[in-house]
Amino acid sequence: MTTIVDASVIVSCPGRNFVTLKIRTDDGVSGVGDATLNGRELAVASYLRDHVCPLLIGRDAQRIEDTWQYLYKGAYWRRGPVTMAAIAAVDTALWDIKGKLAGLPVYQLLGGRSREGVTVYGHANGESVAEAVDDVARLVDLGYRAVRVQCGIPGIEKMYGVHKGSTPYEPAGAGARPVEATWSTQRYLTHVPRLFEAVRDRFGPDLTLLHDVHHRLTPIEAARLGKRVEDYALHWLEDPVPAELQEGFRLIRTHTTTPIAVGEVFNSIWDCQQLVAEQLVDFVRATVVHAGGITHLRRIFDYCALYHVRSGSHGATDLSPVCMAAALHLDVAIPNFGLQEYMPHAEVTDEVFPRSYRFADGYLHPGEEPGLGVDIDEKLAARYPYQPAYLPVNRLTDGTVHSW
Ligand code: GCO
Ligand code: MG
Fold first, then answer.
1. Catalytic: which of 123, 191, 211, 214?
2. Domain 109-368 has CATH 3.40.720.10
3. Parallel, antiparallel or unpaired: strands 283-284 and 118-126
4. Given 200, 220, 259, 327, which residue has the most CB atoms within 10 angstroms?
């Protein structure tokens, strides 16, 4: 038996806030897990420190499934982003430890490779359609095979997904309160088809294109948008509507053949149970940190496979390199992988999280190191203390709060 002797939570802000769990064993082997929940980081840190870490001491580090069940069923209060991020961190760290003890990269423990590399999509954006089209060219030159495209909408300030400069896009703003943005569905629906017409004109039919609606439409509005962009053959239209009402997607499905991706905010299999069983979506975007770790995410994707639904995991910069490493081991192993989002982290983030995964020719590769191939430099992390930061709040022009 390999006994857990220590579990500590590291909250740091190298470029942005991250919560990282480190578990140590009596064998001297340690593992890391990501527990970052953008804008609510300290809630997960407390859940771990105050309620989970003390329970881990003395447990067998090799019993991953049993520990998952112990934390999920044992809490009595099931699901929810805070609980599931905390369980995810423990689960991820235990897979890392198991890999190191076995001397194998985690993907080997998951059944081995199903593909040579993990196809990723990058983010292109611009204030205008012309700027966004040029940004697509930049990504194509970097070797990306799939590109998500967002652009500014005339009359809408601070549009989601659009930013200036070469630093990675970061929606969370530093400060004690969220910034506020405004929204107009009418303007958005008129403009987006022009963007994709221009992108297809310049790049032709072969480039894989995606777009993120970021939960802002109603089902019938989303159906209209999906229909309008059918000729531009999007690989997926992401989060067209907020997904609490799973049956709402029936309306979208009835009207359009544009594929739908959903689920970056999902934290359990139950969030997509109906969406998948009724084949109302094509890609599920749940990821390791927010959906209960490798153990639960694999369960979600296995379930998806029964219904022709593929993975399309979230990979924004608020998921730490620990989460990305874990996602890549799963991506490379599962039979129904679809696509992986990739937003490179800031240099300072990569310094704090030394990692073996690498980008080449449009693919990410998890690397061959035992475990996940990622760690946290705790001394360096301590130089970047937590800074309050929130995701924006969105309002209609009359002041009504709208989904951001
Ligand atoms: C994406 C996401 C992000 C989220 C962010 C929230 O598709 O990458 O929508 O941009 O807004 O991860 O924390
Ligand atoms: Mg998204």
1. 214
2. no
3. unpaired
4. 327
